Amino acid sequence: MSRTQRRIVVVTGAGTGIGRATAHEFRARGAHVVAVGRRAAPLAETAAGDAGIEPLVADVTAPGAAERIVGAVTRRHGRLDVLVNNAGVAGGGPLGSLAPEAVERQLATNLVAPLLLTQAAVPALTDSRGVVVNVTTSVGSRAWPGSSLYAAGKAALDSLTRSWAVELAPYGIRVVAVAPGAVDTPIGAHQGLTPQQQAEVRRWQVARTPLGRVGRPEEVAWVILHLADPAAGFVTGVVLPVDGGAVIA
After folding, report:
1. Residue 48 and residue 45: Cα distance in Å, rounded?
2. For the chain, what is the mean pLDDT?
3. How far apart are CA 86 and CA 217, in angstroms?
4. What is the Rg, in whole angstroms, of the alpha carbon atoms belonging to the chain?
5. Element (H, E) at 82
6. Alpha-carbon gap, residue 227 to 162, rounded angstroms
7. How far apart are CA 241 and CA 4, in angstroms?
8. Cβ neighbours of 50 (radius 10 Å)
9. What CA–CA distance (Å, rounded) separates 148 from 156?
10. Top-confidence residue, 114 or 94
11. pLDDT at residue 190 in the model
């Protein structure tokens, strides 16, 4: 994995969970990581005093955020090699209970922000013949009553992954996606679920996961790292489930 050394990697949603694990995984292979997130304190914990992980506080849904993030990275480092679109929010409820604000917030974070950030990054990624990794969800390809909005937004990002892979191939840019299943992250707490509700969700998820457990953020980060590696140079357009078999059960 020495070929990841000195690459400049941007990871959104890097303050916790899969984003934090991904930042650490790339850093362990010698890359310089720009860790993007809305809150300074979790980003500082991700960096943990390591100058090779550079916190960048930004709300990816804010107007002009995509251009500001890419501009800050390219001005400081002169290049961008890997963009990991990991930032996401979840929330649910059956049709008829979804407030317009919740719909807008989820789609702004899970779909529009990755689109605009990738678009802003295309010139820099063209120069480096870089890689875009979108983090979606394995259940985006299945019915998910009660969480249809989240699943639909992530499924749309799967579709963008495939289209961008073809569209950007002439520029030497690869586009892939990793689709996690149930993973041990704070996403339930961020939704405002009580500990009891989170435990109920976990029981439901484990019961529908053939490997019989919840995944670890590091397991997803490992896949992201390897799909972004130059050794995977003939892989593009793939949406790879990392879900313990849930999507095929």
Report:
1. 5
2. 92
3. 12
4. 17
5. strand 82-85
6. 15
7. 23
8. 12
9. 12
10. 114
11. 58
CB contact at 8 A, 229 and 3: yes
What is the CA 144 to chain-centroid distance, rounded? 20
Q: How far apart are CA 45 and CA 186, in angstroms?
A: 15
- What are the catalytic residues? 150
Side chain identity, residue 140: G
Q: How far apart are CA 75 and CA 64, in angstroms?
A: 16
Q: What is the pLDDT of residues 178-233, one digit of tens each?
A: 999 999 987 666 566 677 777 777 788 888 899 999 999 999 999 999 999 999 99
Query: What is the C-alpha separation between 187 and 193, in angstroms, rounded?
Result: 9
Helix (H, G, I), strand (E, B) or coil at 183: strand
Q: Closest Cα to residue 80, out of 23, 121, 50?
A: 121
Structure tokens at 128: 């480096």
Q: How far apart are the first and last CA of the chain?
A: 33
pTM, to two decimals: 0.93
- The residue with tokens 């457990």 is 213
